[in-house]
């Protein structure tokens, strides 16, 4: 899988239009404007990049960078 914590952070920051350094593992991404349509876009993007079993609920239930990094890489952000 080509998804690394840095790649996940960069993808989310790009989508939100912010600097990756602004995002912490605890940041609630919905507070920054992330909505369900954008989450679905990330799910589709990351599936094509190797996260074959990723589901919308995996990300939506806990919309923090730290949680997403653990789900996608098996390790903390």
TrEMBL record:
Spans through the membrane: none
Gene3D superfamilies xrefs: ACP-like
Domain Carrier: 1-76
Protein name (record): Acyl carrier protein
């Amino acid at each position: 899988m080509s998804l690394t914590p840095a790649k996940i952070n960069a993808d989310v920051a790009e989508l939100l239009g912010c600097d990756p350094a602004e995002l912490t593992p605890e940041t609630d991404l919905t507070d920054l404007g992330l909505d369900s349509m954008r989450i679905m876009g990330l799910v589709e993007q990351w599936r094509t990049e190797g996260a074959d079993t990723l589901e919308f609920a995996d990300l939506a239930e806990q919309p923090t960078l730290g949680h997403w990094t653990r789900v996608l890489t098996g390790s903390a952000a």
